[in-house]
């Protein structure tokens, strides 16, 4: 019997792939389309909390995409105090398998994958649910995924005004400096939440709160705006969903499962259920449900993060790595 081997892509390999913004968006959109067409299996994420004293937990995401012939499991640590150690708050591994045999196909450093696919989900949600002429972004949070939110939103909308805020001044200043250098346009650093989000066309809430706290006020949201909250702990008021014309999620199965998520309290209190939900983003991407239908709509897109997006982007990376001769072949058996 021939030895079984799989491909290992480390962080350096993935950096050398030099995926373009369009490649990232196209890969994640393909995963969403497959989901919307019923060509996937996705299980709600589960969590491992080793010790409350560590102030962190692991997320385990699982899924299968039939058109890609790939199944996958990603394990990502979410540790909010890692910045004190000079480490990313989220570090991950993605395992890809042949769904027909169960044999391992690849293991990838999924830290960058997590960051990129999260930004792509935010941007693709905005493509379908924000006004096409949206030009002002108010972004709360400066974690690693935040960079890709702004970068990919700017790719789609060519933003005229970018406002950012985060809890630590040094964090938001460094974030704005990186964005200005990468995007070649000014970025406004705000001292508070209200100045950042009030009147913005697109509002992204990606804060890193230690406990739920309603810091984002519903009254600040302009009619016709899109709001994208995805922090682990809720920063929005319960009244936020009351002003929305359409509420869309990435996956309803995991939206109402598990203890975490920006709209967790809305689900638990009954303010958000399937009767209120407009649909999943994949259904819109696949053309089964409409996205934004008028300039007057005020919409909300809540995403928890999809294993399908990890698998789709990981599959695109694996294909490009094979073309470029990158990665290591490791023996499994």
Automatic annotation (TrEMBL):
InterPro entries the record matches: NAD(P)-bd_dom_sf, ODC_Mu_crystall, ODC_N
GO cellular component: cytoplasm
Gene3D superfamilies membership: NAD(P)-binding Rossmann-like Domain, ornithine cyclodeaminase, domain 1
Protein name: Ornithine cyclodeaminase family protein
Family annotation (SUPFAM superfamilies): NAD(P)-binding Rossmann-fold domains
One Pfam family of this chain: OCD_Mu_crystall
Biological classification of the source: Bacteria, Bacillati, Actinomycetota, Actinomycetes, Kitasatosporales
């Amino acid at each position: 019997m021939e030895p079984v081997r799989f491909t290992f892509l480390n962080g350096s390999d993935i950096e050398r792939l030099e995926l373009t913004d369009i490649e990232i968006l196209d890969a994640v959109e393909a995963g969403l389309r497959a989901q919307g067409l019923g060509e996937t299996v996705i299980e709600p994420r589960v969590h491992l909390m080793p010790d409350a004293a560590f102030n962190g937990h692991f997320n385990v995401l699982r899924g299968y995409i039939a058109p890609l012939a790939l199944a996958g499991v990603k394990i990502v640590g979410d540790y909010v105090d890692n910045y004190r150690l000079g480490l990313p708050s989220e570090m991950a591994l993605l395992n890809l398998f042949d769904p027909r045999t169960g044999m391992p196909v690849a293991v990838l450093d999924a830290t960058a994958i997590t960051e990129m696919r999260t930004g792509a989900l935010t941007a693709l949600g905005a493509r379908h649910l924000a006004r096409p002429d949206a030009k002002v972004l108010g972004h709360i949070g400066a974690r690693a995924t935040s960079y890709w939110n702004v970068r990919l939103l700017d790719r789609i909308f060519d933003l005229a005004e970018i406002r950012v805020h985060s809890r630590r001044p040094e964090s938001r200043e460094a974030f704005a400096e990186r964005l200005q250098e990468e995007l070649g346009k000014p970025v406004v650093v705000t001292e508070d939440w209200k100045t950042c989000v009030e009147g913005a066309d697109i509002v992204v809430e990606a804060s890193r709160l230690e406990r739920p706290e309603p810091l984002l006020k519903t009254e600040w949201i302009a009619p016709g705006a899109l709001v994208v909250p995805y922090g682990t702990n809720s920063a929005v008021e319960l009244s936020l969903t009351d002003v929305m014309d359409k509420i869309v999620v990435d996956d309803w199965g995991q939206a109402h499962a598990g203890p975490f998520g920006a709209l967790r309290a809305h689900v638990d209190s009954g303010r958000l259920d399937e009767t209120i939900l407009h649909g999943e983003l994949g259904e819109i991407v696949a053309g089964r449900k409409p996205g934004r239908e008028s300039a007057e709509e005020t919409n909300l897109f809540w995403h928890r993060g999809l294993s399908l997006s990890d698998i789709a982007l990981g599959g695109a990376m694996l294909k490009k790595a094979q073309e470029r001769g990158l990665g290591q072949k490791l023996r499994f058996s």
